[in-house]
Amino acid sequence: MTTTVELTRFRVRPEHADRLPAARSGMLADFRADRSGFLGARLVRLPGDEWLDIVEWRSPGDFAASRAKGANLPGIRAFFDLIDELVSAEEGTTDESENPA
């Protein structure tokens, strides 16, 4: 199964970093309740106050529909509000042939 992967790199001010995990929980709950095709997500802390958000979607259409909704729910908005600067945003696909089950 091929999935769509959203890769978003962003900066959070050091004084907000401790609030990110709680806000993340709220965002993921809202995604599960409101975003068709949401499969899961991983958040990676990088050096220099940067983070990498890796989100998997069932299809490019599901990802596009999610982007169109933006921060439409409180949990999503609370997470986005902690982001100080967007560094990069990319979309790709998995190649499941490399990792057979």
Strand order of the largest sheet: 2-3-1-4
Principal-axes geometry comes out as: globular
Strand element count: 4
Number of domain modules: 1
Q: What's the architecture, going by CATH?
A: 2-Layer Sandwich
Mean pLDDT: 94
| Secondary structure category | alpha+beta
Largest sheet: 4 strands, antiparallel
Beginning-to-end CA distance, first to last residue: 10 Å
CATH class: Alpha Beta
The CATH topology, please? Alpha-Beta Plaits
Order of helices and strands: EHEEHHE
* Count of alpha/pi helices: 3
Helicity level, as a percent range? 25-40%
Rg is 14 Å
GO molecular function: monooxygenase activity
Domain ABM: 7-68
Pfam families: ABM
Keywords: Monooxygenase, Oxidoreductase
Walk me through the structure:
The chain is an alpha+beta fold and 101 residues long. The protein has one domain: 2-Layer Sandwich (Alpha-Beta Plaits). Helices cover 33% and strands 34% of the residues. β2 and β3 form a beta hairpin. The chain is globular, with a radius of gyration of 14 Å. The termini are close together. The model has no long low-confidence stretch (mean pLDDT 94).
